[in-house]
Design brief:
alpha+beta; Serine Threonine Protein Phosphatase 5, Tetratricopeptide repeat; five-stranded antiparallel β-sheet; 10 helices; 5 strands; flat
């Protein structure tokens, strides 16, 4: 990042090809209007530009913490034109959900948000029953921190393919955040099946159990905890899990705990 001392150092001057998006800053985590634009880096004396040091592309400049990513403006523009045009040509020659996903990801990578939205609309009309394409586009939007259309895509994908685990997890986490715990548990019922830990991460169930406990619904919290313990016996020795179970058991007045006895490492006594 540019810096000056007593008016001597480097500064950016000018903003061209400016775009703004509302998203969490990758540095400070605050949701802000992140700016991307072309500028020029100058060596300054008493804050007066003296020597140009090259054109730059500022990416996702955060107004809160001022951090951002920087690329050479010419190199960035060349890469954008080459990669976007190549993906567009591939989609034009061979339109399919796969090439639509590739083009969509490329557009988002270069912050072409409006073009990506237009592509989503046309691709959904062209491939109206392809749930996997919607899931892929939603995941790409999540990586680009474009969250509002992401949620709608996951809902649409669930209507087409209610069996897709990744869709059910995403929707369940959103239900949990909004306090709709019963809906979330129904979406995650496949994780409560015997042997689920061999095929899936049970992390979403752990999150659901924590929210049940926060709501004072200790019976449901312990039901999930018992399943986690059955599927992953080692967690019975983890302090956080033991404290969680003990808290709900105490709230329900239970004296016979589901927790296994603590396993202490054997000490070798000196001879």
């Amino acid at each position: 990042m540019p810096a000056t001392y007593n008016g001597v150092g480097t500064l950016y001057y000018g903003k061209r090809n400016r775009s703004v998006r509302i998203a969490p800053c990758r540095s400070c985590g605050r949701v802000a209007h992140l700016e991307s634009y072309d500028t020029r880096l100058w060596f300054v004396i008493i804050f007066i530009p003296v020597l140009p040091l090259g054109r730059k592309r500022i990416i996702d400049a955060c107004p809160a913490c001022t951090r951002h990513f920087v690329a050479g403006a010419d190199e960035y523009e060349q890469a954008r034109q080459l990669q976007v045009s190549a993906a567009q040509e591939e989609y034009r020659r061979s339109p399919s959900p796969l090439t639509a996903l590739k083009l969509h990801g490329t557009l988002l990578a270069f912050h072409e948000i409006e073009q990506a939205e237009s592509l989503r609309q046309s691709a959904r009309q062209k491939f109206p029953t392809d749930g996997e394409m919607l899931v892929g586009m939603a995941a790409q939007l999540g990586q680009a921190a474009v969250y509002e259309p992401m949620a709608e895509l996951y809902e649409a994908a669930h209507r087409l393919r209610p069996d897709l685990p990744e869709v059910r997890v995403e929707l369940a986490l959103r239900r949990i955040d909004s306090g709709r715990l019963e809906e979330a548990r129904k979406l995650l019922d496949f994780l409560e099946a015997p042997g689920a830990a061999r095929r899936h991460s049970l992390g979403p169930l752990d999150t659901l159990a924590l929210h049940y406990q926060k709501k004072g619904r200790h019976q449901e919290a312990l039901e999930i905890a018992q399943h986690l313990l059955d599927e992953l016996p080692r967690i019975g020795q983890i302090h956080r899990f033991r404290a969680f179970v003990a808290r709900s058991e105490k709230a329900l007045g239970r004296y016979d705990s589901m927790l296994p006895a603590r396993a202490f490492p054997q000490r070798v006594l000196p001879r």
